[in-house]
Amino acid sequence: MRRTLRLLADVKPAATRYLNAGNPTGLTGLYTATSPRSTLLYLYNTTLEKLQAAPETSLYRQSVEALTKHRKAIIEAAEPPGHAEWAERARKILEQHPDGFKIENRAARDGARMQIVERGGQTYMMRHAPQEKDVRTEEWDGEIDEGGELEGPRSEAERADQALIFERQPMDEAKKVKWEAEPQLTADQVEEIETKIGAGLIEEVIEVAHTELKLVATMLEAKVWEPLEEKPAEGQWTYFER
Fold first, then answer.
1. Least confident interval from 12-26, 120-134, 140-154
2. What is the widest separation between alpha-carbon atoms in the chain?
3. Residues 6+ positions from 145 with CB-CB distance below 8 Å
4. What family does the entry list (predicted)?
5. Interval 181-205: pLDDT, tens
6. 204-222 burial string, b = 16+ CB within 10 Å, else e?
7. For the chain, what is the domain count?
8. Is-above-0.85 flag for pTM?
9. In this structure, are 190 and 75 located in the same domain?
10. What does the alpha-carbon distance between residue 64 and residue 48 come to, in Å, rounded to a whole number?
11. 9 with 23, same domain?
12. Is there a domain that residue 148 lies in?
C-alpha cells in the first residue's frame, strides 16, 4: 500500500528507472531519500560498533545485532549500477587529496562540506549541506574577522602580516575538491529492498535506523543487562496461561 502511495505521489514515465530525490513519498512529512543505501550502511555499521560496548551475553545486544546484520546484508546485496567504477574513482580522489576531507578542512562541493568518516571498516563521505540564510538578517560579508584596525605607523612585522593578508588565497579555494555523487539505486532495487525488509518504504527504514542508533546510547547508559536494583516479585513476569 505504501509503495502505491509513493507511485501516486511521484508519477513518472515508465522508462524512468530512478526515484526522484526530495519528491513526496505519499506519507506526510516523508520525502524520497537522496542516498538511501549509503545512509543505511552508515547507520547500521555505527550501530554495530556502539553495541560492542555491551556484553555479548546481553539479550538486547544479541537481538539488535541480529536484526541489524540481517538488514545490512540486504542493503549490501543491492549494488547500484556503476557503483564499483565510482568507488575506484572515489578512492583515487581520496589518495590525491589526503588532507582535503579532515574535520578541520572539509572539502567543498556545491556549497556543502564533505567529510570522510570510517565505520565498520568502510569509508563514508558525510555531506553537510549549509543552512539556508536569510539575506535580511545576514550581516557577515564572508571575510575573516581579524579585529579592529590599528592606528598610527606599522612596525616591520605588522607590515609583513598585512602583505600576507592581501596575497593569500580565499579560504574556500584551497578546500574545494571535485567530488562525484554516488550512483543511486534503481526504482526496482528500492522496491526489492522494501519487500525483503518488510518494514514499509526505505525512507521509513532509515527513520527506524536513526531511532535505533539513538536508543543504543540510552540503553548503554542504563546498562540494561545488569540485574534490577529491586528484584521483581515472584510470578510478576509470568503471563496468563490457557
1. 120-134
2. 96
3. none
4. Belongs to the complex I NDUFA5 subunit family.
5. 788 889 899 999 999 999 999 999 9
6. bbbebbeeebeebeebbee
7. 2
8. no
9. yes
10. 8
11. yes
12. no
What is the chain's length? 242
Question: Grid coordinates in use for 82?
Answer: 556503476
Residue with C-alpha cell 605588522? 158
* Neighbouring residues of 31: CB distance < 8 A, sequence distance ≥ 6: 21, 22, 23, 24, 25, 203
pLDDT at 75 over 90: yes
